[in-house]
Task: inverse folding
């Protein structure tokens, strides 16, 4: 008897939880395309606003590292003079 009531409860819960799935079968009116494109453009603007400073910082670091490398790199004549003295 207990298993029959448990089975009935499980069947009722499963059946009732599936009801919202049948609610989405009606045709819907498509959203206004202009509103969708404005929203997507705004999202793209936010993404670009986040990426531009990051890219600018990375390029500045790369340029600074390249500039520091050229300043501190020994020339070929300095290397040759050091190898002659040793």
Result:
């Amino acid at each position: 008897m207990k298993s029959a009531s448990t089975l009935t409860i499980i069947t009722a819960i499963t059946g009732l939880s599936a009801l919202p799935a049948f609610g989405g079968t009606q045709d819907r009116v498509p959203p206004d395309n202009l509103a969708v494109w404005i929203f997507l453009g705004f999202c793209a603007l936010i993404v670009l606003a986040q990426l531009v400073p990051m890219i600018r910082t990375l390029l500045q670091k790369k340029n600074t590292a390249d500039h520091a490398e050229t300043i501190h790199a020994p020339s070929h004549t300095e290397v040759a003079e050091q190898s002659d003295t040793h």
Residues 34 and 40 are 10 Å apart (CA to CA). The radius of gyration is 34 Å. The chain has four helices and no strands. Residues 34-65 form one domain.
